[in-house]
From TrEMBL:
<dbReference type="InterPro" id="IPR000182">
    <property type="entry name" value="GNAT_dom"/>
</dbReference>
<keyword id="KW-0808">Transferase</keyword>
<feature type="domain" description="N-acetyltransferase">
    <location>
        <begin position="1"/>
        <end position="152"/>
    </location>
</feature>
<dbReference type="GO" id="GO:0031415">
    <property type="term" value="C:NatA complex"/>
</dbReference>
<feature type="compositionally biased region" description="Basic and acidic residues">
    <location>
        <begin position="211"/>
        <end position="223"/>
    </location>
</feature>
<dbReference type="InterPro" id="IPR045047">
    <property type="entry name" value="Ard1-like"/>
</dbReference>
<dbReference type="GO" id="GO:1990190">
    <property type="term" value="F:protein-N-terminal-glutamate acetyltransferase activity"/>
</dbReference>
<dbReference type="Pfam" id="PF00583">
    <property type="entry name" value="Acetyltransf_1"/>
</dbReference>
<keyword id="KW-0012">Acyltransferase</keyword>
<comment type="similarity">
    <text>Belongs to the acetyltransferase family. ARD1 subfamily.</text>
</comment>
<protein>
    <recommendedName>
        <fullName>N-terminal amino-acid N(alpha)-acetyltransferase NatA</fullName>
        <ecNumber>2.3.1.255</ecNumber>
    </recommendedName>
</protein>
<dbReference type="InterPro" id="IPR016181">
    <property type="entry name" value="Acyl_CoA_acyltransferase"/>
</dbReference>
<feature type="region of interest" description="Disordered">
    <location>
        <begin position="198"/>
        <end position="223"/>
    </location>
</feature>
<dbReference type="GO" id="GO:1990189">
    <property type="term" value="F:protein N-terminal-serine acetyltransferase activity"/>
</dbReference>
Length: 223
């Protein structure tokens, strides 16, 4: 299985998956609106053949009076590929993208009161909590739970990851400087050693000219 960011070419397959899995359906222009406005936030799950078997459609809420937050518009996984953890992975990817790209403080969603499986996933697995009940939220008149998940934990993880990345860069620079300094010292040492070789050699006790003069003096004395 592969989880990746959705592309414009995926939108029709995402809509098809939505029609198969959920009673809440959207026109194609709604998918394009999400894809063009927030291309970083929607993800698809592919099977081994590259066929889309699940998706998450997400966006950022544009409410100036509220904290920066994202919203999960739609989440679906085909029945043949459920209980594999795909829904959780899709949700985690979208939530992380909200933090990394928009510094979101929390993420919200709506879920039918009757959808027990989704409620368990959101509440028990992903850490969403019910913020309120919205009466007759759905077209058929069913109430919805409005749910939120605080993204502080993911924000801290992102800050730690960035800090570690910067630290690794700094350590890399320091290591490079140390290696360059060691190389310079080694080069200087080699030069010093090459010069010290000559310094250690003892000069000849007599130069050739002095020896020749002495020979001449010795010849005179002998004559």
């Amino acid at each position: 299985m592969n989880i990746r960011c959705a592309t414009p070419e995926d939108l029709m397959n995402m809509q098809h998956c939505n029609l198969l899995c959920l009673p809440e359906n959207y026109q194609m222009k709604y998918y394009f609106y999400h894809g063009l406005s927030w291309p970083q936030l929607s993800y698809v799950a592919e099977d081994e053949k590259g066929k889309i078997v699940g998706y998450v459609l997400a966006k950022m809420e544009e409410e100036p009076d509220e904290a920066v937050h994202g919203h999960i518009t739609s989440l679906a996984v085909k029945r043949s590929h459920r209980r594999l953890g795909l829904a959780q992975k899709l949700m985690e990817q979208a939530s992380r993208a909200m933090v990394e790209c928009f510094n979101a403080q929390y993420v919200s969603l709506h879920v039918r009161k009757s959808n027990r499986a989704a409620l368990h996933l959101y509440n028990k697995t992903l850490g969403f909590s019910i913020s309120e009940i919205e009466p007759k939220y759905y077209a058929d008149g069913e109430d919805a739970y409005a749910m939120k998940r605080d993204l502080t934990g993911l924000r801290l993880e992102e800050k730690i990851a960035v800090a570690k990345g910067l630290e690794a860069l700094n350590l890399g620079d320091q290591s490079k400087e140390t290696e360059e300094k060691a190389s310079e010292d080694s080069c200087h040492e080699r030069k010093c050693c090459s010069y010290s070789r000559y310094a250690k050699e003892e000069p000849p006790s007599r130069c050739p000219r002095t020896t020749l003069e002495e020979k001449k003096e010795a010849t005179k004395e002998g004559s």
